[in-house]
Amino acid sequence: MKGRVLIVAGSDSGGGAGIQADIKAVTALGGFAMTAITALTAQNTSGVAGVLPVPPDFIRQQIAVVLDDLGADAIKTGMLHDGPTIIAVAEELAARARNVPLVADPVMVAKGGHALLLPDAVAALAHHIVPMATVLTPNLPEAEVLAGRRIGDVAEMREAAEALRGLGAKAVLLKGGHLPGDRVTDLLATEAGIEAFESPRLDTRHTHGTGCTLASAIAAGIAQGLSLRDAVIRARHYVLLAMASAPGYGRGHGPLDHAVTVDPARVAALLRS
Predict the structure, then answer these.
(1) What separation in angstroms does the CA of 246 have from each of 10, 201, 243, 252?
(2) pLDDT tens profile 29-76
(3) Residue 209 appears among annotated catalytic residues
(4) Cystine design at 161: which of 47, 86, 174, 267 (Cβ 3.0–4.6 Å)?
(5) Could you say which DSSP state residue 193 is in?
(6) What is the DSSP letter of 260?
(7) Is 111 noted as a catalytic residue in this protein?
(8) What is the pLDDT of residues 188-233, one digit of tens each?
(9) DSSP notation for 117-186
């Protein structure tokens, strides 16, 4: 049940989000993670201190060599940063992985507020990446930018999810964590309609990388042959468990416990064998 997932995203030096969170999530759920890094960031739980973009030609090369040799059962995109990067990624995926399911996480702003997508790149993202997506996974601020509308309640979430599907994505998982309340509602909009998933809100500051983790967990499920709905359900449970068992590191938005799925008894048995 391995499942090969190619992750095209930026690096988080703090280890809580980005490529680091993606690799951890895919691995924790039994998949095999591969990467094409789009940018290096100097960041921790308090915020992003700097961003160093990777040249688009080298991003293309990373994608090409991985797909030509290892292949992929699913692809996940995260931080793409600017227009040239978006176009390079879209063209490379169209040429080499047109029929591979794509989970597109439209990363725009870090937890600390630092912009991870340049403002003039939003149109490129909507035009080049969103129409390729098997599922788009925006949070509410990202959805508001892409859909060009305010989202203040679940009813407006439903309207926005359909509007985002109108941009070409086959499905949209609109995450409602930014709305107030004791429960969090996420909406999965597909051709068949809209399904709501609810969970209790966890009272924790350890939320760094939740979006990256969720999208990569969904990609792992799809790569392993799960339906989109089942992949979403498993991914949401995984993120909740990882948040609930967060290690408590850092002074700001702390990281999750991505290794929550590891069974210590099984590890001990393997070491004894």
Answers:
(1) 22, 15, 5, 13
(2) 999 999 999 999 999 999 999 999 999 999 999 999 999 999 999 999
(3) yes
(4) 174
(5) E
(6) G
(7) no
(8) 999 999 999 999 999 999 999 999 999 999 999 999 999 999 999 9
(9) B-GGGHHHIIIIIGGG-SEE--BHHHHHHHHTS---SHHHHHHHHHHHHTTT-S-EEEB-TTS-SSEEEE
Place 111 in a pLDDT band, splitting at 50, 70 and 90: low
Q: What is the DSSP letter of 115?
A: B
Check 3, 31, 209, 250 and give the catalytic one.
209
Report the CATH number that the domain containing residue 44 is assigned in CATH. 3.40.1190.20
The three-class DSSP label of residue 50 is: strand
Count: domains in the chain = 1
Verify whether residue 16 is a known catalytic residue. Answer: no
Which residue segment(s) compose the domain that 50 sits in? 4-272
2 assigned to active site:
no
Catalytic residue among 111, 212, 213, 250: 212
Q: Which of 15, 134, 175, 250 is catalytic?
A: 175
The answer to whether the CB of 182 falls within 8 A of the CB of 198 is no
